[in-house]
Amino acid sequence: MRMAIIATAVCMSLIGSCLAQTSTAAMIRVETRIPPQPLESALKEFAAATHMQVLFLTEDVKDLKTRGVSGKLTADEILSRLLSGTGLKYRYVDTTAVSIIKASSNARDTRNASTTVDLSHRARRPTERPAAHGHTPTDPPIVDDTPNTTHATSYTYTALGEIIVTAQKYTQRAFDVPISLQVLTGQELLQHGITDLSSLQYDVPGLYMNNTGTQRAVYLRGVGNTYGSGAMVGQYIDEADITAEGFTGESGFATDDNGLYDLQRVEVLKGPQGTLYGDGSIGGVIRYITNKPVLDQFQTSTDVAALFTESGAPSQRLQAMLNSPLVAGTLGVRLAGLFEHDGGWVDEPAASLRNINGSDLSDVRAEALWQPSAQFSVNAMQIIHRHTYGLGNGEDDNGNFTPAFETTLTPNGADNSNISNVAITFDSNRAHLVSSSTYLNERQDVYDNFNTLSTVSALLIPYSHSTNQVFSEELRLVHTGRGRWQWTVGGFYKHFRDTFLYPMAYVGLAASPLASASKIKVRDSGDLSKSLAGFADTSFKLSGRLTLGAGLRYFRDDETSDVTSFALHSTTRQATTFPSTDPRFYVQYRVTQHINTYASASKGFRSGGFNTPPSAPYQPETLWSYDLGTKARFLAEGLAADVDLFYMNYSKFVTVAQLPPLYPDLNVGNARIKGADAALTWEPLDRWRMGVTTEILRTEFLTATALSGYAPGERLPFAPTYSFTASVQHSYRWNDRPGHIEVYYSETSRVQVRPPLAQSDILRFLNARVGIQWSDNLRLGVFAQNLLNDRGNASPEYVTGASVRPRPRTFGVEFHTSLP
User: Fold this and answer.
1) In sequence order, which residues have a C-beta less than 8 Å from that of residue 74 and are 6 or more positions away?
2) Is the pLDDT of residue 28 over 90?
């Protein structure tokens, strides 16, 4: 860990020593004379004459010749003439670097994956060239002539390039976003075997998920919660808001683990994002950007994997995609599905059962795109998620599960959800209008779940049922015209309702749950939230280098709660309103075309909520975050680095009070969070790439009430002190077939929780993948996960039996087919 931090600091120091102004050759005409010759040498002459950097594969230009060029020409004119008749084209990486690719290349070519643009909200447009449109040297062009989908990948070499994102709800380079931002492309998700949020957390330092077996609470930078009135990390699938709200007393859990297949990319925004993403994003936002229907081409792809887990049963996974135009250029559909049978690995000796945590998952996404004109489009999406599973929480060091009271019951559950979204877009030359309507309906059923609470008592839950029903509507207008001023305005409405029902009894260990059945009471609760918000975000470029930005969101949440008290034998209705005004400020300064710096301050907010009477309600939580960051891109040299330092003041932290038998939520007090994010990618040699991403985190309570079990100076619950990932990739050729090898390692520190004081284990994972492109339409691969066979406790709540362990050492084979 220490070496990773030192390496990142040294590389950033080296980058700082290289600050220099870059040529603007792409913008001006130069006297040029390049005689007819082999194309490779001609491109080298072009680079020398224009002081630009040219990236190309030797295999693409070998045996090709150019007729040469002469005259006083721009870089665009020179390149167009040099490449005339060669079957190649060029694409800008930034204003001083271009990539030479095959003219037939589309977004399936991994050399272009890093410059794929999200066109889900706009028609395909001609390539925008800097000379033609007069970009300034500090405003590089965003090239968007690639198809709006990436449905397959190959193992050809991928030159390091800049990723295009929509993190601020308009298209821009990740380099230009004044936010700590980590992006994983669809290719990386496939190569790392990431199929859900549970596996995504090990590739994103700072992202931690407390998995109790039945629920998943998501944390970013130590900000997240299993208690309170809603989630603290927002989640979006394209324009669909799927941020979990949760049920009374146990809010903040993630929605179902939707499949991450056939995605263009995943964007993880760290820190409060309330201006554009609302009160559910106090810790950050995770955005899943899907591949949209292609309107002029039939496509299919299939990924099949067989997994063999040590001490467990075999598993199988099928991922499939079908894209078909219905009316060429106007109407098309795209179907993507993930189907998985997990054989499991946990045994229950008392019941003579093996692999009781096996599961069956189906996750299907259907999208239809109607685009009658270049300005207008309608995209409809439907996701159907069905998941039945055996609970793996409570697994001991030997891989066994022993229920409380010496019973032979086997805990199991089912998660079912439906997500519907319709996004209507109108795109003019200067503005972009979007209407997004989303409906989310999910239900979870859990049976025979025993959780040991302490050495003297246990909680018996024969079954529990919870439902969430959410409707949301967002309308926003984004300025897309050229100029110094960029702005976004909009409004948002959400209607949320949940219910939670479970029989409940506190039973001594010496007692029998059957003998105590008559004591079981029913707890039934429900929340209703109606929230409105108006938001605006704007930035103004004072000069070619300096940009000032600000945003504001006014939020109003009307909450109603009905709680049936088994103690008072009555149902109580409580209602109140939680308003908030949340600002954001930032300044951005581009030191050179390769170095971008920013400083920001932003506020996050989460509503308060209610407890079962006679316990009093709890108040809203707020968080102020202050960030100072630097982003560096030396793409021609194969070097990219991001560093972000942050400091956060957290007010009125919510946890559960130690007041049995009600255990109400309460505001603990105030806390402080400080730390650093860093990411480094380096290509030291051709076809070799090394990467390190890390987060260092320090958290502490400044004030704390004794009823919470915490004291001033203690760490916040579920906040890792560090996490990092490191990877080495190599692209090779065998018998003229391209291949890919990658080894990656991740480590997450212990996290803790009170009461009682408990810590998870340090988690260390070593994974490897090897693949080869056997033919144009067939890719073969083998992989290994958790080679170190780390079986530590992933959550400190293992002391109550509410934690799962990582999957044991697993090996697998996979193949991918695609058409065309």
Assistant:
1) 26, 27, 28, 29, 131
2) no
CA angle 604, 259, 214 (to 5 degrees): 70
Q: What is the mean pLDDT of the chain?
A: 82
| Largest distance between two CA atoms of the chain | 96
- Residue 670 buriedness (CB in 10 A; 0-12 / 13-18 / 19+): middle
Q: Which residue type sits at 798? A: Y
Torsion of CA 195, 199, 205, 211, to 10 degrees: 130
Give residue 757's pLDDT: 86
255-314 pLDDT, tens digit per residue, is 556 778 999 999 999 999 989 998 789 999 999 999 999 998 899 999 999 999 999 999
Helical pair 39-50 and 75-82, crossing angle rounded to 10 deg: 170
pLDDT confidence of residue 454: 38
Which one-letter amino acid corresponds to residue 273?
Q
Which pLDDT value is given to residue 727? Answer: 94
Q: How far is CA 701 from the centre of its chain?
A: 28
- The 8-class DSSP code of residue 194 comes to -
| 238-252, 445-459, 552-566, 650-664: least confident range | 445-459
Tell me how far apart the alpha carbons of residues 693 and 729 are, in angstroms, rounded to a whole number.
15
CA distance 805 to 807: 7
Compute the distance between CA of residue 665 and CA of residue 654 in angstroms, rounded to an integer: 7
Alpha carbon 205 to its chain's center: 11
Q: What is the DSSP letter of 703?
A: S
Of 417, 472, 382, the residue nearest 255 (C-alpha): 417
Terminal C-alpha separation, the chain: 44
Q: How far is CA 136 from the centre of its chain?
A: 32
DSSP of 448-498, one letter per residue? Answer: EEEEE-SSSEEEEEEEEEEEEEEEEEEEEEEE-SSSSEEEEEEEEEEEEEE
Q: Token pair for residue 662? A: 């009600």
Domain residue spans of the chain: 1-104, 241-410+439-819
Range with lowest mean pLDDT among 106-110, 199-203, 604-608, 653-657? 106-110
User: Contact, 376 vs 425, CB < 8 A?
Assistant: yes
Block residue for tokens 């260390």 = 764
Place of tokens 């010759």: 37
Q: Please state, in angstroms and rounded to a whole number, the distance separating the CA atoms of residues 443 and 464.
A: 11
Query: What's the predicted TM-score (pTM) here?
Result: 0.82
Reported as half-sphere exposure (CB side, CA atoms, 13 A), residue 725 has a value of: 21
What fold characterizes domain 241-410+439-819? Answer: Maltoporin; Chain A (2.40.170)
Burial class of residue 672 (count of CB atoms within 10 Å of its CB; 0-12, 13-18, 19+): middle
Write out the two tokens for 812: 């697998």
Provide the CATH number for the domain formed by 1-104 in this structure.
Answer: 3.55.50.30
In angstroms, the CA 479 to CA 477 distance is: 7
Q: Distance between CA 320 and CA 336 in Å, rounded? A: 6
pLDDT band at 160 (very low <50, low <70, confident <90, very high): low
User: Are 635 and 93 within 8 A, CB to CB?
Assistant: yes
Q: What is the pLDDT of residue 524?
A: 55
Pairing of strands 299-309, 284-290: unpaired
* AA letter at 142: I
Could you tell me the two tokens for 208?
A: 């931690």
Instruction: Report the half-sphere exposure of 395 (CA within 13 A, side-chain side).
Output: 28
Structure tokens at 228: 């309170």
Q: How far is CA 251 from CA 65, 226, 246, 730, in A?
A: 65, 6, 4, 44
Tell me what pLDDT residue 544 has.
Answer: 81
- Please choose, from the candidates 75, 73, 79, 71, the residue with its C-alpha nearest in 3D space to the C-alpha of residue 103: 79
Distance CA 76, CA 79 (A): 5
| Calpha distance 299→319 (Å, rounded) | 14
Return the closest-CA partner of residue 277 out of 578, 651, 537: 537
Please list the residues that pair with 80 across neighbouring strands. Answer: none
Alpha-carbon span 460 to 447, nearest angstrom: 10
Q: 89-98, 514-523, 645-654, 715-724: lowest mean pLDDT where?
A: 514-523
